[in-house]
Amino acid sequence: MIRLEHVCRSFNVGDQQVAALRDLNIDIGAGEYVSIMGPSGSGKSTLLNMIGLLDRPTSGTYRLDGVDVTALDEVQQAQVRRDKIGFVFQFFHLVPRLSAAMNIELPLILAGVPPEERKPRVAELLASYGLSNRADHRPEQLSGGQRQRVAIARATIMRPAVLLADEPTGNLDRATGREVMTLLEGLVERGVTLILVTHDHEIGDRAGRSLVMVDGQLESDSKRVAP
Amino acid sequence: MNLADTLQFASGSLRGARTRTLLMMLAMAIGVAAVVILTALGEGARRYVIGQFSSLGSNLVIVFPGRTETAGVSPGMLLGQIPRELILEDAQALARSTAIRRYAPLSIGAAQASNGALNREVVVLGSTASLLAIRHMSMGEGSFLPEGDARIATPVCVLGSKISRELFGAQRVVGSWLRLGDRRCRVVGILAGQGMSMGFNTDEVVIVPIASAHQMFNTRSLLRILIEANSREQIIPARDEAERILTERHGERDVTVVTQDAVLATFDRILSALTLAVGGIASISLAVAGILIMNVMLIAVSQRTQEIGLLKALGAPPAQIRRLFFVEAAMLSLLASVAGWLLGELGSSIIGHLYPTLPVGAPWWAVLAALGTALGTGILFSVMPARRAAQLDPVLALARR
Ligand SMILES: Nc1ncnc2c1ncn2[C@@H]1O[C@H](COP(=O)(O)OP(=O)(O)OP(=O)(O)O)[C@@H](O)[C@H]1O
Ligand SMILES: [Mg+2]
Predict the structure, then answer these.
(1) What are the residues whose beta carbon lies below 5 Å from ligand 2 (ion)?
(2) Which of A82, A106, A112 has the CB atom closest to B2's CB atom?
(3) Which stretches within B137-195 are classed as H helix?
(4) pLDDT value at position B43?
(5) Stretch B281-309: mean pLDDT
(6) Residue ranges per domain, chain B?
């Protein structure tokens, strides 16, 4: 489903070139549950952004469902992001002035889904993530765990095939982090491809497949048999 | 994304940043209001002057003694020559012209007027019966100067309404005798109150037959001759014929004949230029508002780069993001400039109430220019930075703080 071939990404910092990804080759199938681990600065976020089409490779190709997405123009890329990819950020990135329900509804609004179809979908997600009584609260009135649940609801409302999460529990305490992980793993059971960046081995080891990155390269790629 | 959602999203982000929104609206509204009020004042002055001129009479042509060049001074005057005077016979000769409906000779002087113990200094106008119609005056009581031979000094007079009040009070006026300088005349009528008209208060004059005025002031010259042309189209022929007739009589061109329209046009030009200049000064405040808007918007958009990045990450194409910002800016600018317009109209109507004689009202071109400038700067300065932000890669936009 996701296929990276000889992907490199380097940044220009002053007159220096910093290579964040060096010649990566990765294949991820539909429905896989993958964790990406590794030391800070090893290129995990860069890789995830690349997969999420938030960033472009300096060289190499990236195929999603067989389509070379690096060759697509901006509008087409936006469409792919909208329809196929959900993103969960470490810092939530909720719109502060919008209520929880409105934040979740946002992708539907942008996609032009008619209002009468939007409301039940939002209500359903709010209910299944235990946020029904928080629908009208703004992000600042929510706890960290609740915020991340809103963010996950927003990432999944378009029913994407791929869910990308960059340290989704990084800003949460252990118990809340576990709640969020249960939620994400529930999505995997429903067939969503989940790719997760984390520093927490306990979390990383739960995934069906673990990638370890060092210095912009894959150090190990280990699959586990499902427990 | 449909229109209702776009509008709702845009108004949501305006309400979300209340201080910024209010600040921008204030700046823009003040700029627009300044232009509206100042041009309304200028336009008011212009209309006032034109109204004053029109109240003097219509299709009016005026003859002055002396040849006035465009500079306003005749060469003769510079050499110390006194131009040949204009006399009653000159005026009467104008009756020959077919373009002229009526004419009134005019002379002016000052005299002491008294009724018993009451007395005061008055302006005495000498003229004929035609003056009433030419100057668009109307009678309050009695009748105007009698028709008849202008050379006969009938001992009658017509009083301005204020003079009548001051010298006669509640007494019967029409039919009474008034002492005017060293002669006596019977009051035949009182002018209807008219107030100021071109700095000349008809409420404070005494009008006598031209021959009486000449005798009182021991002269035979006229201050000017007022001519009413037959119609609007006949103004120019009337002017030319008057000039021709008088040149013929005097043997040289030593009179100045102007049409009221020409004088009016000059004033109109001067005052329009004034309005434009005042509007120009006011538009500086609009430009200042524009620069303020530009700065606030630049800061606002850079603060919102993250939001733009998020929208991109959620799959909004750049065109959609640009549209959101455009709608937001258009809403803000529209609200602000309409508020400023209303504020300006309110301000001018307050001025209009304070000075009822001044017909204040902003000209449409000034209102349009002010609204256009405000809308233009507001939208341009909001959309430009947003456009740039929408072109960033989502990661970069998201990472900005
Ligand atoms: N916008 C950027 N400009 C310059 N260099 C960058 C940029 N983004 C990332 N890098 C560099 O790329 C490398 C990889 O960064 P990345 O954020 O992917 O690391 P990471 O593995 O996610 O680290 P962490 O665990 O701390 O989040 C780092 O050396 C970083 O300095
Ligand atoms: Mg990272």
Answers:
(1) A 45
(2) A112
(3) 161-168
(4) 85
(5) 80
(6) 3-53+270-399, 104-224
Helix (H, G, I), strand (E, B) or coil at A15: coil
Question: Exposed, middle or buried: residue A12 (CB in 10 Å: 0-12, 13-18, 19+)?
Answer: exposed
SS3 A2: strand
Cross-strand bridge partners of residue B206:
B124, B159
Ligand 1 in reach of A208 Cβ (< 6 A): no
The pLDDT tens digits for B308-329 are 889 999 999 989 998 988 898 8
Distance of CA A50 to the CA centre of its chain: 11
Note the Cα A71 to chain centre separation in Å.
Answer: 22
**What's the DSSP call for residue B158?**
E
Residue B36 CB contacts under 8 Å (≥ 6 apart), including other chains: B340, B341, B343, B344, B345, B347, B348, B362, B366, B367, B370
| pLDDT value at residue B105 | 93
Domain boundaries, chain A: 2-217
Averaged pLDDT for residues B288-294: 79
Q: Which two tokens stand for residue B391?
A: 């072109």
B305 phi/psi in degrees, rounded to 5: -55, -40
How many Å lie between the centroid of ligand 2 and the Cα of residue A174?
19
**Terminal Cα-to-Cα distance of chain B (whole angstroms):** 27
If one compares A213 and B78, the residue with the highest pLDDT of the two is A213
**What would you report as the CA-atom Rg of chain A, rounded to the nearest whole angstrom?**
18
Segment A60-111, tens digit of pLDDT: 999 999 999 989 998 999 999 999 999 998 888 899 889 999 999 999 999 9
Nearest to A149, CA basis, from A92, A84, A85: A92
pTM of this prediction? Answer: 0.72
The two tokens of residue B348 are 């001018």
Fold of the A2-217 domain: Rossmann fold (3.40.50)
- Rounded Cα distance, B157 and B111, in Å: 13
H-type alpha helices, B304-363: 305-313, 318-354
Tokens of A196: 């997760």
Give the C-alpha separation, B172 to B183, whole Å: 20
Distance CA B239, CA B228 (A): 10
Interval B169-186: pLDDT, tens: 888 889 999 999 888 999
Contact across the interface for B318 and A97, Cβ inside 8 Å = no
C-alpha B392 – ligand 2 centre gap (Å)? 20
The pLDDT > 70 percentage for chain A reads: 99
Q: A2-13 and A59-64 as β-strands: parallel, antiparallel, unpaired?
A: antiparallel
Place of tokens 């490199």: A8
CB within 8 Å of B227: residues ≥ 6 apart: B60, B61, B62, B63, B94, B100, B102, B103, B134, B238, B242
For residue B142, give the H/E element and its range: strand B139-142
Interatomic CA distance for residues A47 and A64, integer angstroms = 14
Give the closest residue (by CA) to ligand 1 atom 4. A11
Residue B299: alpha-carbon gap to chain centroid? 44
pLDDT at B197: 55
